[in-house]
Design goal:
This protein is α/β, with parallel strands linked by helices and 330 residues long. 44% of the residues lie in helices and 13% in strands. The chain is built from 16 helices and ten strands. The chain has helices spanning 9-19, 21-24, 26-34, 47-58, 79-85, 98-103, 113-120, 145-165, 180-188, 204-210, 220-227, 250-255, 269-280, 284-293, 296-299, 304-315; strands at 40-43, 63-67, 88-91, 107-109, 136-140, 169-174, 197-201, 213-216, 232-236, 263-264. Strands 7-6-5-8-9-10 form a six-stranded parallel beta sheet, with helices on both faces. It has a four-stranded parallel beta sheet with strand order 1-2-3-4. Helix 8 (145-165) links the parallel strand 5 and strand 6. Helix 8 (145-165) packs across helix 9 (180-188). The longest helix is centred in the middle third of the chain and has 21 residues, at 145-165. It starts with 8 loop residues before the first helix and ends in a 15-residue tail after the last helix.
Amino acid sequence: SRLSSLAELDAVQSACITLGIEVGLRPLKATLAENLPQLAILVGYSALHHELAGFFKQLAIPVILYEVTPKQALKAVKFEEAKDRIKVALSIHKAGSAFLRAAEIPYHYIGTPYRDRVAKVDIRASAFTFLTSKPLVTLYPGGYGEALQKMIPMFSQLAVGIHAANDCQIVVSLREELDFDQTVQEFKKYLPSTTLVSFVLGMHLELLSLSRLAVTGTGAITIEAAIARKPFLPIYDQEDEADEAGFFSLVNQSLGKKLVEEYSSQAPIKGLLTAIKNLLKEGSEHTAFLKKLEGAQSEFEGSAADNAADFIVQVIGLGRKRSKIPVTPQ
């Protein structure tokens, strides 16, 4: 956080894409070499993080991985090298993620930050002046850039179908801060003027807490919806890769089991709309879905930030508590 270069990570990432990772990271490495950290904490893992981990390893700086890594980010990462470069991982998965298991990287389970975030939400519907008393369906297409753009046509079709078949209100929650207006306009290309949809930048947990149902991507929102006990349908891009157990959504991947059904972006819209309609109304399907979510809070422990901090100070020798030995995945 003391390095000015870290405030320009978008530029670093663009340079890596344009010039290659080795050349693109040279300015950042030079700055780091002038002001060496006591340890390096990498949030998530990719080819870019892998290169930095190797750089820190050469300088005998311990590398801790805060492990929130989707499978698609691991392309071009050599797992045997990652095992040598990463001292320990802090995992939000009780059994360690597929990456940690494949690379045999020792880890501490720290709980999930998502439970802590959900617990802090306290809001009334009146805070959103555009909301009515009708049941709220919130759409979370998720992602940035190309990944988001690919999901817009399908989520727009769902908005049209939901509005036509149900007496409810629809909100699209977006996180594309740089291109919010442009993204909204892209959505509206697919929406007839008779389909009433509101668009909100951020506030995704606040909207989730007020929702009757959510239609989501496959990321953190799936864990948050499960913890908040809100029925949801996760939709994955047909071109995404599943983990070794065949799951696409972060909630199923984290639990290592099928908590909820997952739907392809190529799934027939009619079938999705039927599932949505059944979950919106009071009935056996809505009740059964809530029943599935009852155990999610106990599966996802809280206080992740505090637990992570405890383990980090132990690694650098400042902790007063008895050190816990990290688990090596089997």
